[in-house]
Amino acid sequence: MTTAFRRSDRSDRRISPIFLGIAAVTAVAGWAVWTGFAEQTGFAVFLFVTSAWIVSLCLHEYAHARTALHSGDVSIGSKGYLTLNPLKYTHALLSIVLPVLFVIMGGIGLPGGAVYIERGRITGRWKHSLISAAGPLTNVLFAVVCTAPFWLGALDGVPLAFRLALAFLALLQVTAAILNFLPVPGLDGYGVIEPWLSYRIRRQVEPFAPFGLIAVFGLLWIPEVNGVFFDAVDALLRGLGVSEVETYCGLDTYRFWQEWFGDQDPWCAVRA
């Protein structure tokens, strides 16, 4: 029985072939963008950014799960959360398809799936807060990595198409981190502060948790709120060396299908 348990434990943590396949697509598409191998640069950028975004969604949820495991929730492995399989994170539509659609439509990093953590197994407020913070901190790390060539001044030799792809990918990571860190019920930011709230307040807020994300995106449809939000995003990216022009042209290049309808910005198309 001990041997069987150990084998099961190892299988619970074995990296999913689905994740490895997505990572391989990211690598190949990134190579195609860098070398100019693809006939359609925009399509290669689309594949690279989309697959890299899905990889970051998986790592976001993995960070939650791994932190929960080390905090005391030993049930995490049996749920498949340590395999990085995107299909294990709640629901394929909500976890993968919807976030990708938001990227295509609006260039916003929508928080993706979720992991079910048995909080009763975990003691200590700091542990609960860290579990919630682990996911968006992964997005912050991704943003730092994507923008490293910019803030290190190491752009010499970096092909422009790849540079624009990194700029747009960084935009997605920054928006995801900001949205996730909002102290709104249902988002990770609220999960960070929830352990420090009184039981009465938590009970009062609990019914609103399923609608938190919907409320946030409803507010983003208000032009004034949208403007303030993206001004903050642009300010953070400028601090990391990425200009608004680069993120704009990155999004424009990502939407390769616009060229078919003559909607692609000519200036960005020439630069890409």
From TrEMBL:
Membrane topology: Multi-pass membrane protein
TM spans (from-to): 15-34, 41-63, 92-117, 129-152, 164-184, 205-222
Keyword check for rRNA-binding: no
Required cofactor names: Zn(2+)
InterPro entries in the cross-refs: Metallopeptidase_M50B, Rip2-like
Gene Ontology molecular function terms on file: peptidase activity
Subcellular location: Cell membrane
Highest taxon above the source species: Bacteria
GO biological process, one term: proteolysis
Main location: membrane
Keywords, alphabetical: Cell membrane, Hydrolase, Membrane, Metal-binding, Metalloprotease, Protease, Transmembrane, Transmembrane helix, Zinc
Stated family: Belongs to the peptidase M50B family.
Protein name in the entry: Site-2 protease family protein
Taxonomy of the source species: Bacteria, Bacillati, Actinomycetota, Actinomycetes, Kitasatosporales
